[in-house]
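Retro notes (design track)

What went well: tokenization of the new backbones is finally stable.
What didn't: we kept losing track of which sequence belonged to which structure.
Fix going forward: every design gets posted as structure first, then sequence, in one message. First example under the new rule, 301 residues:
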């Protein structure tokens, strides 16, 4: 995998809205944080556009992103927020120059579309809090973005869940994944990820239990769950019951989907739609080590 150049003081970073609309006041605090790191935000022409639910038309959002992908003075692209609609512009984008001069792509949720698509180009990306969410994120979550961007070490220790499926040993593999609903939507497309021999991460928000089951079943039928090193499950936030109780928790749904496989499954990693949303480098080799009371997730430098 290719690691984009780490940021240096004074670097320019692109600010874009590829999905849901956002206002300037909503990202003001996030911009202040970037400036405190001595970075220079460059706001896309259409970043504050409003086209119904979206930050401009598909063409306007694609034009903004294409310009930032091609601008070699922009050293990272940090998105304002997620929502929905990045999937509608991904096929309009040309990554020719980006492949020659890669830069960090930073975001999560709907940005899974870009993480997944770029993974096929063998370039690392950063799954992390976006600008609109920075004021509500924990200080540790925000600091982890800076660490990832500037090339500092990343390692996390989380409490061991009694729901985990253990192997007892350290497992290593390239980390891939993102939002489960988007991985489901990308399944079988040109933006799909190759999970063979890798560690799969996923999180989700506001979905029904049956949808979690449906998404995992679709991934399994496409052999995305058969040859993993491990699964790392992040925050599954506000997962809902339908009028008729589903009869299983999401923990049980995940474990049932992988019961015939012998790799470990680790739940409750602090990443996803919650204030504690730690940065992950997708495409980077990570080591997951369980001990008596905790699980350490450490990225290889």
């Amino acid at each position: 995998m290719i690691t984009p150049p780490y940021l240096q003081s004074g670097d320019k970073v692109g600010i874009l809205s590829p999905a849901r609309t956002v206002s300037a006041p909503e990202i003001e605090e996030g911009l202040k944080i970037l400036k405190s790191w001595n970075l220079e935000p460059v706001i896309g022409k259409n970043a504050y556009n409003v086209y119904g639910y979206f930050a401009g038309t598909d063409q306007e959002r694609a034009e903004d992103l294409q310009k930032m992908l091609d601008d070699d003075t922009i050293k990272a692209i940090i998105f304002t927020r997620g929502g929905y609609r990045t999937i509608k512009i991904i096929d309009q984008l040309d990554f020719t120059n980006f492949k020659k001069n890669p830069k960090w792509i930073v975001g999560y949720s709907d940005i899974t579309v870009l993480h997944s698509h770029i993974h096929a180009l063998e370039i690392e990306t950063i799954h992390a809090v976006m600008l609109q969410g920075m004021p509500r994120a924990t200080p540790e979550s925000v600091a982890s973005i800076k660490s990832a961007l500037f090339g500092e070490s990343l390692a996390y220790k989380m409490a061991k869940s009694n729901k985990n499926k253990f192997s007892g040993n350290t497992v290593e593999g390239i980390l891939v994944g993102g939002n489960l609903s988007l991985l489901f939507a990308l399944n079988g497309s040109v933006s799909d990820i190759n999970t063979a021999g890798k560690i799969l991460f996923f999180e989700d928000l506001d979905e029904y239990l049956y949808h979690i089951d449906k998404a995992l079943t679709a991934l399994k039928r496409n052999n995305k769950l058969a040859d993993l090193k491990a699964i790392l499950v992040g925050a599954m936030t506000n997962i809902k019951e339908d009028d008729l109780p589903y009869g299983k928790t999401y923990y049980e749904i995940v474990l049932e989907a992988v019961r015939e496989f012998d790799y470990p499954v680790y739940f409750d990693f602090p990443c996803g739609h919650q204030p504690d949303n730690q940065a992950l480098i997708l495409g980077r080799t990570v080591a997951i080590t369980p001990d008596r009371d905790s699980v350490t997730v450490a990225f290889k430098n």
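Added context from the reviewer: The two ends are 12 Å apart (CA to CA).
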